UniProtKB/TrEMBL annotation:
It comes from Cylindrospermum stagnale PCC 7417. The gene is coaX. Pfam families: Pan_kinase (PF03309). Keywords: ATP-binding, Coenzyme A biosynthesis, Cytoplasm, Kinase, Metal-binding, Nucleotide-binding, Potassium, Transferase. This is Type III pantothenate kinase. Belongs to the type III pantothenate kinase family. Homodimer. K(+) binds at D141. InterPro entries: ATPase_NBD, Type_III_PanK. Its EC number is 2.7.1.33.
């Protein structure tokens, strides 16, 4: 164990996952995940103020005070290293200039058979889920993009798929057409009529029923290969999708484990294991 590792093992540290919509934060004490929360991207000027701190303690104070501003119910203090994973290169470029930031790369994840451009969020969530519930495992991440990522009994990547997530499908229709309204995914609290008679419900119907049918189809194809596999869903639309599946395809929904923090479970295991 090197000194850096020792710091992670014994002390509080922050995990930062940079997604395409927002920042995902976690506070760990040693190997335990204490709490997790989401924030918007921070202005570059704010991040640069962190970098101007003269000492690690000052740096951490500034990060912490910024996070406290965002989330006042988290009492953070003391020096915190940050373990960062990102699927947004322009954001990585800003954050990696800071001291105390260590970037997690694909090479650090002990999955077999990965391809070089696999998203680090997908690899971390897969590793976190597999190490927790066992392999084979399928992870569905319903973020900006919706991804399926599966590994077999040998902790080897089988593969997956990427499609526009729920919010992105609504955004694309709202932004790339002349007269469709921009709908918000979070406003869907019940399934629309399948054959709708107004524009918002027609958009909702098309997007949600197609997405649910697609998820069902991918899950069935996975279970055909690995009948005993656990299947987990994470990401910002996880609850909406699980609830909708519950109504539409209850037997599929019954197989889905909902867990918000799969990426941080993976991060915790990686950060602690790295020598
Ligand atoms: N407060 C929120 N802000 C942004 N997106 C949200 C929020 N609550 C739920 N969502 C949903 O979460 C999805 C984004 O998921 P998330 O996991 O945060 O994305 P990413 O990891 O790609 O940044 C969007 O499709 C959106 O519908
Ligand atoms: C597929 C993703 C865009 C998902 O990102 P997210 O929606 O979580 O922000 C990201 O994992 C990524 O950029 N992946 C690289 C390509 C791949 O995994 O094959
Ligand atoms: K995702």
């Amino acid at each position: 164990m090197n000194l850096h590792n020792h710091i992670y093992r014994e002390n509080p540290w922050l995990g930062l996952m940079i997604g395409n919509s927002r920042l995902h934060w976690a506070l760990f004490s040693g190997e335990t995940l204490d709490s997790a929360w989401d924030t918007d991207y921070l202005p570059e000027s704010v991040i640069q103020q962190f970098a101007q701190a003269q000492t690690p303690e000052k740096f951490t104070d500034r990060v912490i005070s910024q996070l406290n501003t965002i989330r006042r119910d988290t009492a953070l203090s003391g020096p915190y290293p940050i373990s960062l994973a990102s699927v947004v290169p322009s954001q990585t470029a800003i954050w990696q200039t800071l001291p105390n930031v260590r970037i997690i790369t694909l090479a650090q994840i002990p999955l077999f058979g990965v391809y070089p451009t696999l998203g680090i969020d997908r690899a971390l969530a897969l590793w976190g889920a597999g190490k927790t519930w066992g392999f084979p495992i399928l992870v569905i991440d319903s973020g900006t993009a919706l991804t399926f990522t599966g590994a077999d009994d040998n902790q080897c990547l089988v593969g997956g798929a990427i499609l526009p997530g729920l919010g992105l499908q609504f955004a694309t229709l709202g932004q790339k057409t002349g007269q469709l309204p921009l709908l918000e995914a979070q406003l869907i609290n019940s399934l629309p009529p399948r054959f709708a008679l107004n524009t918002p419900e027609a958009i909702q119907s098309g997007v949600i029923y197609t997405l649910l049918a697609g998820i069902k189809d991918f899950i069935e194809a996975w279970l055909f290969l690995f009948p005993e596999s656990k299947i987990a869903i994470t990401g910002g639309d996880r609850i909406l999708l699980k609830n909708s599946l519950q109504i539409q395809f209850p037997e599929i929904a019954a197989r889905l484990i909902v867990e918000q923090n799969l990426i941080f479970w993976g991060m915790e295991k990686i950060v602690i294991e790295i020598e």
